[in-house]
Design brief:
Chains A, B: One of its GO terms (molecular function) is iron-sulfur cluster binding. 2 copies of one chain form a homodimer. The first copy, chain A, has about 625 residues and is an alpha/beta fold. Chain A folds into 5 domains: about 80 residues, Ubiquitin-like (UB roll) (Roll); about 70 residues, Ubiquitin-like (UB roll); about 150 residues, Domain of unknown function (DUF4445) (Nucleotidyltransferase, domain 5); about 160 residues, Nucleotidyltransferase, domain 5, CATH 3.30.420; about 90 residues, no CATH class. In chain A, about 30% of the residues lie in helices and about 25% in strands. The first copy, chain A, is built from 17 helices and 27 strands. In chain A, the strands form 7 sheets. A 6-stranded mixed beta sheet of chain A has the order 12-11-10-13-15-14, with helices on both faces. In chain A, a hairpin with a 2-residue loop joins strand 22 and strand 23. In chain A, helix 12 crosses helix 16. The first copy, chain A, is elongated and about 100 Å long. The complex binds FE2/S2 (inorganic) cluster (2 copies).
C-alpha cells in the first residue's frame, strides 16, 4: 500500500531495506533460505529467474508471480506484494506470559559490498570509495572510528575489495572485513538487577535468543541493598570504580559463557543493550550515584546513553556500541522503562496498572494517553529478605502454602519438590493470606490469643507459626512464620499498596477502570494472585485481569536491541511518564496507614475478600 | 536587512549569536569593552540603560539610539542596525602580502550558564538540566563525552550551578567549569611541512595570533624527502608509529612554548587545525601512507577529519578537537587546499595561477567556476637542496645576486647581512637568470666556452662560477654555482613549468587571461620575480600581476580555526578541484622538454625576456 521510488540495479531485498520495509532474509540474501518471498506482477521489470529461484520455488509459486527478493534485480517500475510469511514484523518476542509484535530492525546490520578497484583513472581515496559503494546501495553518509580508518587501507586490499561492512544505525561503519563469509551478526541484552544479572545472547538477523545466562550481582559483597552500594561508591576511595569493575567483569564472564554455549565469536557481538534501576545504571556507566540517595534525588542523566563497549571495558567487538535505556526519575530507572515497553501499556486504550516488585518496587498507572509512576524502596521482603526463614527462589524453597481452616494443618510445595530450606516471597504472601483467612491472625497481623494449635508457639516473646516441622525440613529446624515476619510483609505491602492508591487517585481511576494488572519481576512467577488480593497487595479486581509478565526488564532491553523504533519509544516514554514523589505526596501517609490493615482499613474496597473470608470462616 | 524572530529575555548579543550575526564582544559580554555597539530605534522594546551603557556611551551616541548589545535585553519587537565597527566580519587574517576578510565564527565558543537549583519539585537530571539551560540560550540539542558526563555532577555542584560551558560546533559540550571567571578560549593551527613545522596560537574570541613557533620536522632523521619517509613507515616494523610519534612530540613542544610565551594554559586550548601534504597528513593521523607512493597513488581519505586531540596524544584540553583539512588527491594535500582557501582564487571571477613551491610543488589554475590542479615532486632544488653550496634561508644565506654584464663582477646580499655561508633558493634563481642574461650560459644552461673571467673554473670536469670568494665567505671556501647545480634547477623549473603549461592548456587559458599569479611557500619570500620570469619558471605576464603570498598553508589552517564556513568551503574545494595526473598526461613530456630551455624552447612565449636579453646583451 506504499509507493516507493527505487534505484535501478538494486535487488528488491536491498530496495526494501532502503525503503524501510522489513523482509525476512535468514541467509543474508544469498538465495539459500527461500525466506524472502515476494510477489510481483510486472515480471518484465525484474531480472530473469536465477538458479536459486528455480530451485527453491515450486512451479505453482512461479506461476503465481512469486520471486525471491534477494535474487530479483529491479530494471523498471514494479509493484511488490510482501506476503505475511515474509514480513519481518511477524517475529515475536516472548517474555513469560507476554508476547509483543514489532518490526525486526536492529541498529546493527551487515552488508556485503564489492568496491571498484582503484586505477590511475579512478584514484578516489579508500574511505570515499567505500562511502560511494554504500551510497550505491542506498545508504547515507557514514562515519568511521579513527582507529578503524587507520586499518581500512590494509583491510580493503587484503579482502581484495570484496568486503562485509557492519553498520550501526546506518550512520557509522563499525567493522569492515572480508566479504562473502557468513559469520553472523549478534547482540546481547543485559538486565543489571540489584541482586542478579541476566544476559541474553541474540542473533540480530533472526531475532532469536541463542543463550540465556544469569549470575548473582557481585556487588552484593558491598551490600545487599541499593543504599549501601551508593554509599560505598560515594564515600569510599575508588568505591565507584570498584563497583563498576565488578559488574563489568561479571558481564564479561556472562558474555563469554553465552558465546561459548552458542558457538558465537565474541567479536561478532556488535551491540549490547542494558537496563537496570537508576543506581545500577549509574554505577555501570561510572556516573557518581551519590545524588540518588540524598534529596532531591537527582539522576545524572535521563535520556538513553550510547557509549562504546570498549570505553566501559566490555569485551565484545572493538567498536560495538552499548545502548543503555533511559531513566524516568531518581528512583524509576531504565528497567522500569523496559517494563512499560515490554507490556505495551503505553499504546493501549485500556487503563493498566503495572507493578514491578523488586528490591525497589515501581508502580505505573496509565494508558496511551498518559502514564504516571512512583517508586518505593519496599519490596525486598517479598524476595525473602529480612525474614527469619526467608530464602530466595532456590531449590527447597517453600513456594506455596495452604492452611486447613478446620485443624490448621499445613500443606506446602517446595521448588523442585526438595526438602524445605525456607520460605520464599510468594509463600510468605500465601502464609499471611492463609493465616488471616483461617482467623489465626487479625487484621493488624497479630496472632489471636485464644487459638489452640501446637503450630503456634512463643519464642523470646515473639509468636511464631510452624509451617514445616524440623523432621520434614532440610535444615533440621522448624520453619516458621513469626509475627515480626508478618509485620515486615505488611510494611512492604502497605508501601506498594499506598503507591497504587496515590497513582489511581491522581489519575482518577477506580478498580472497575483497570482493564489489566501486570505484575513484573521474578517475584510474580510463583505468586498466588488470590493470596496477593487477600492480603490487599493489589486492588480488588477480577483475577482474570491479572497477568504475571516475568522479567519484562530484559524483554524491554531485547526489544531495544532488535528495534530502532523501540529505542525512540523508550526515550519518548522516559520523557512522557510523569513521576510522583510519594514522600512528598499529601495522601501517601494516610494511604500507607490504611494499607497496614489486612486487606485494608476500608473493607468496602475489598468486597471479594470480605465475601471469601466470611465464606471460609462461616464454614 | 534580515528579519529574525528573537526570544524575549535574551540580550541582543545572545540573540545575534543565535541568529548567526557576528557582533564584536571582546569582554565576553560583560559590558566592559564597549565594542558591541548597535543602534535601535524602538528603545521601549529594550531593557532600560545599564550603568555600563551610561558610562561607555557619549550622550550624542545615546541620543542617536546607540546601545550595547550585551546590555540590552529584548522585551518586544526591535529592529537592530549593526554598524560596521561592531561587525565581526571586519576582522582580517594577514598572511604576508595577503589579506582576506571573513566572519569570525570559530567552532569553539564558551557561554556562561546559570542553572536553576534542583528541588523536590524540579528533579530534572543534571545533563538535561544543562541542556535545558542551553536551549533557553538558543542552543540546539547537545552531546557530551562519556568521561565528561561522569564528572558533570561534581562539577555542577562545586560551581554552585553557575558554570562556563565550552561548546564545539554548538553540538558537543567539551568542557564545563566554574562560571564567572574570565579564562579565555584558545586554539592552535599547525602546518606540518616536510621539513618544518609551524604553529600559531590564536585567541578564538578576538581572532588574534598570540604566538608563532617553528621547528624542524624531526622526521627528517628518517629522510629529507617524502618518499623515504613513506618507505620507512611502510616497510619498517613500527615505522609509522615512530614517525607519527615524532611529529606529535614536536607539536606538543611547540604548543608548550607558544602557551608559555603567551601566558595561556594548555588546557584552555580547545581546538587545533592542521594542514600538511598528503604524506604528512597520513603520518600525523596514523594512516598507512604506503599507497601514496605506489600507482595509482590512492589516499586513505579525502574529506576533512575531526578527531579528539587525546586520541592522537596531543596535549591540549582533554576533549579538544583536531580538525585536519581535506586533501584533493594523492599528491595534492590539505596544505594545497589551504593555499586555495587563503588566496581566495575560488571565489574570484578572475583567472588565477597559484604555485606553491616546496619539497613537492603544487600548481592551480582557475577561478570561481572551476579549478584544476597538479603536483610535481620537483621543488626541493629551490629550497637549496641537491646543490653543492645550497642552503636554506638561514643567516648568511646569499639571497640576491647580480652579475655585471660587462666585467662579470658579482654583487650579492645575504640574510641578516652576515658573511655568506651558501646560496639559498631565491639566489639560485637569480644566479641562473643573471648568468644567462650576461651570456655566461647558453639556453641549455651550459657555460659558454669562450668567456674569459677568473670567476669561471673547472673542477673535476665540472665548470663552476664563483659567486663569493673564500676570503669573503664564512666557510673559508669559494661559494660557487656549478653547471650541475644549474641542471638541477632547470629540471625542477621544467617540471613546474610543464605543469603550468598542461593546466593552462586544459583550461584553455592564455598568458593574457591570467589576472593573478600567486607564489606561495617560504621560497617566494626572497624570490626576485624578474629572475623567475627570466629563467621561464613562470609564464610571461606583467610583473604587477604577481603576488608573493608566503605561508598560505598556515593562513588557510587559521581561517578554518576561526571560521566554520571556511571548513565547509575547504571540503567543497577538496571535492571540486580537479586533479590532473601529470605523468599520465599526453602533453606533459613534450612540455617538460620544451621547458628545459632558458627561458623556453619556444621563445615567442617569452617576448618580455627576449626584449630584455637583447637589450642587455646589445648594451
Ligand atoms: S534472503 Fe535467503 S533466499 Fe533470499
Ligand atoms: S561585549 Fe563588551 S561591552 Fe558589550
Amino acid at each position: 500500500g506504499r509507493r516507493v521510488e527505487v534505484k535501478r540495479g538494486l535487488t528488491l531485498l536491498e530496495a526494501a531495506r532502503v525503503a524501510g520495509v522489513g523482509i525476512r532474509s535468514e541467509c543474508g540474501g544469498r538465495g539459500a533460505c527461500g525466506k524472502c518471498l515476494i510477489v510481483v506482477e510486472e515480471q518484465k521489470s525484474l531480472s530473469p529467474l536465477s538458479v536459486s529461484e528455480t530451485r527453491l520455488l515450486s512451479s505453482d509459486k512461479l506461476k503465481a508471480g512469486y520471486r525471491l527478493a534477494c535474487q530479483s534485480v529491479v530494471l523498471g517500475d514494479v509493484t511488490v506484494f510482501v506476503p505475511p510469511e515474509s514480513r519481518l514484523e511477524a517475529r515475536r518476542i516472548l517474555a513469560e506470559g507476554l508476547s509483543r509484535r514489532f518490526e525486526l530492525d536492529p541498529a546493527v546490520r551487515s552488508v556485503r559490498v564489492i568496491l571498484p578497484r582503484p586505477s590511475l583513472l579512478d584514484t578516489t581515496p579508500d574511505f570515499e570509495r567505500l562511502c560511494n559503494a554504500l551510497k550505491e546501495r542506498g545508504f547515507r553518509e557514514v562515519k568511521m572510528e579513527h582507529e578503524l580508518l587507520q586499518k581500512l587501507p590494509t583491510i580493503l586490499r587484503e579482502a581484495d575489495w570484496d568486503v562485509e561492512v557492519v553498520l550501526w544505525m546506518d550512520e557509522e561503519v563499525i567493522a569492515v572485513g572480508k566479504g562473502g563469509e557468513e559469520k553472523g551478526v549478534y547482540g546481547a541484552s543485559i538486565d543489571i538487577g540489584t541482586s542478579k544479572l541476566v544476559l541474553h545472547l541474540v542473533d540480530l538477523r533472526s531475532g532469536e535468543t541463542l543463550s540465556v545466562k544469569t549470575v548473582e550481582n557481585p556487588q552484593t559483597v558491598y551490600g545487599e541493598d541499593i543504599i549501601s552500594r551508593i554509599n560505598y561508591a560515594a564515600f569510599e576511595e575508588g568505591g565507584l570504580r570498584r563497583l563498576q569493575g565488578l559488574v563489568i567483569e561479571a558481564i564479561n564472564s556472562l558474555i563469554e559463557e553465552a558465546c561459548r554455549e552458542a558457538g558465537v565469536k565474541r567479536d561478532r557481538v556488535y551491540e549490547v543493550t542494558v537496563v537496570g534501576n537508576t543506581a545500577m545504571h549509574h554505577i555501570f556507566l561510572g556516573y557518581p550515584p551519590k545524588q540518588l540517595a540524598v534529596a532531591p534525588y537527582v539522576a545524572v542523566i535521563r535520556r538513553s546513553v550510547n557509549v562504546k563497549a570498549r570505553q566501559l571495558g566490555i569485551k565484545v567487538h572493538e567498536f560495538a556500541n552499548v545502548f543503555v535505556l533511559p531513566n524516568i526519575a531518581g528512583f524509576v530507572g531504565a528497567d522500569a522503562v523496559a517494563d512499560v515497553l515490554a507490556t505495551g501499556i503505553y499504546e493501549s486504550d485500556d487503563m493498566s496498572l503495572l507493578i514491578d516488585v523488586g528490591t525497589n518496587s515501581e508502580v505505573f498507572v496509565g494508558n496511551k494517553e498518559d502514564i504516571i509512576s512512583c517508586s518505593t524502596p519496599a519490596g525486598s521482603a517479598f524476595e525473602g529478605m529480612h525474614l527469619e526463614h526467608g530464602v530466595k527462589a532456590v531449590t527447597g524453597a517453600i513456594e506455596k502454602i495452604r492452611i486447613d481452616p478446620g485443624n490448621y494443618e499445613v500443606e506446602y510445595e517446595t521448588i523442585d519438590g526438595a526438602k524445605p530450606v525456607g520460605i520464599c516471597g510468594s509463600a510468605i504472601v500465601d502464609a499471611v493470606a492463609e493465616l488471616f483467612k483461617c482467623g489465626l491472625i487479625d487484621e493488624r497481623g497479630h496472632f489471636r490469643k485464644n487459638i489452640n494449635t501446637k503450630r503456634l508457639r512463643r519464642e523470646n516473646g515473639v509468636v511464631k507459626f510452624v509451617v514445616a516441622w524440623k523432621d520434614e525440613s532440610a535444615t533440621g529446624r522448624d520453619i516458621t512464620v513469626s509475627e515480626r515476619d508478618i509485620q515486615e510483609i505488611l510494611l512492604a505491602k502497605a508501601a506498594i499498596r499506598a503507591g497504587i492508591a496515590v497513582l489511581m487517585k491522581e489519575k482518577k481511576v477506580s478498580e472497575e477502570d483497570l482493564a489489566h494488572l501486570y505484575i513484573a519481576g521474578s517475584f510474580g512467577r510463583y505468586l498466588n494472585p488470590e493470596s496477593a488480593l487477600l492480603i490487599g497487595l493489589i486492588p480488588d479486581i477480577p483475577l482474570d485481569r491479572i497477568s504475571f509478565v516475568g522479567n519484562t526488564a530484559i524483554a524491554g532491553a531485547k526489544m531495544c536491541l532488535l528495534s530502532r523504533s523501540m529505542r525512540k519509544t523508550a526515550d519518548e516514554l522516559s520523557n512522557r511518564i510523569r513521576y510522583v514523589e510519594l514522600t512528598a505526596h499529601p495522601d501517601f501517609r494516610r494511604e500507607f496507614m490504611n494499607a497496614l490493615f489486612i486487606p485494608h482499613r476500608n473493607l468496602s474496597m475489598y468486597p471479594t475478600v470480605v465475601k471469601r473470608i466470611s465464606r471460609v470462616r462461616g464454614a
